[in-house]
Amino acid sequence: MDKLKNYYRSCKEELSKVIFPIKEQIRSAYISVFIVVTVISLFLALIDAIMSVSLSSIIN
After folding, report:
1. Could you please report the per-residue DSSP string of 36-54?
2. Which of 7, 14, 30, 35 to pair with 53, CA 20 to 30 A apart?
3. Can you tell me the distance from the alpha carbon of 52 to that of 50, in angstroms, rounded to the nearest whole number?
């Protein structure tokens, strides 16, 4: 039982050291991730379109 109390106490101490992000930090991280994912997906769509057109012109 003593080990369980020590474990609980140490978990509580470690959680008190955690710094949780504020709303503005979460919002800016979300916007950054959204922009990066959008740019990468548009880039991959462009590469796919270029390769599709070039391959179809080679085949025909």
Report:
1. HHHHHHHHHHHHHHHHHHH
2. 35
3. 5
